């Protein structure tokens, strides 16, 4: 494509043109795919949908299926249309990452076999509005689908999602149809925290308005919750992480119960929030009938998606790890993972932009728990178009003003943090916490230097990976 020849991804352009010429093209492409026997999965969440979709694509490929996947993260209508268009006659299953606000726009046209609902957190309020509004749109989306034909795989630890799925089941029952739902979640209290963090988003029952009671929470408002009046009940998850052992930034060991069968997974992508992604991928694969024995090995081979805990070797020595951050809950989990892992974070930069894709409102950084991270880091390089605002937040968070190094130019900031890593850390590891457009720009600089492939040029989920996973499962 011409756009890629100029070094740009251009993943949404064909779909954008197609939808301009034929607004109903998504429904047409979906009908053709259905007639050929291809199944469609839509995956949506505020946090983790790119990683979850990649994990699920790996698992399904491990079963021998040919997977169509919008791997570049082009998750608006145009990007999804591009994926469906380019797939043509290929593929047994389409695994499509879907933006939260886009889900209501594409689900009625695609009429998917499976919808995966991961989580709803406060994010880009200038675009999405309050969480309650987005939850209402998702509820309407499920109401527009035939409950006899779609399976809903959902995070029962999120009370917002649990309520709208409960309403979906009630509607199906009212018309005499058995709804197909697969709840997933966590079941290991040892990695939770008592009550709720102060930045938690969903605190009240959607039915009666009373504050929810939490035995413990795992990520933000995701937890073991109950409605004090019994108006909403947290269903026991059919697929759950029953044992979780966090091993710093190296890996996470966990046991996943899949409908009564336990599988062991060593997940190479760190962080408790990625345990949710793994469990969601296992639940989604189960919904499609994937052999349980193949799920664990395939998840064990999953690698970070571009910019999401992606560790990139630097030829001059050391590494730089890219960590996408875009809302209080996501930032809190990245910070918690770094601090709890015990790694040296004295070479860290934070790049804050305010483009539409980042969210124009950057006040969310004031809701995140930066203090433990700042105390351990001691120094932070602040970059991006809103570098000064993050610098101010860091100072209010207890960092000495001399510990805030302003470097608005992102490329200069990257080289500066690498120099700091070589000078002040034992292994030369640098960490870059970056908002979405900053991540894309830094990733482009890294690709230009030849340290990594352009994110849209990464090799597809390979059949050799699938064969390795099947071989491990047989052993």
What features would you describe in this structure?
This protein has 475 residues and is of the alpha/beta class. It folds into two domains: 12-305, Mur-like, catalytic domain (UDP-N-acetylmuramoyl-L-alanine:D-glutamate ligase, 3-Layer(aba) Sandwich), CATH 3.40.1190; 308-456, Mur ligase, C-terminal domain (Protein-Tyrosine Phosphatase, Chain A). Helices cover 39% and strands 20% of the residues. The chain contains 17 helices and 17 strands. The strands form three sheets. It has a nine-stranded mixed β-sheet with strand order 2-3-1-4-5-6-9-10-11, with helices on both faces. It has a six-stranded mixed β-sheet with strand order 12-13-17-14-15-16, sandwiched between helices. Helix 4 (49-62) packs across helix 10. The protein is globular.
Can you name the CATH architecture of the largest domain? Answer: 3-Layer(aba) Sandwich
Total strands? 17
Task: Give the integer mean of the pLDDT values.
Answer: 90
Question: Which secondary-structure class do the elements indicate?
Answer: alpha/beta
What percent of the residues sit in helical stretches (DSSP H or I)?
A: 25-40%
Strand order across the biggest sheet? 2-3-1-4-5-6-9-10-11
Give unreliable regions as ranges: 1-8, 459-475
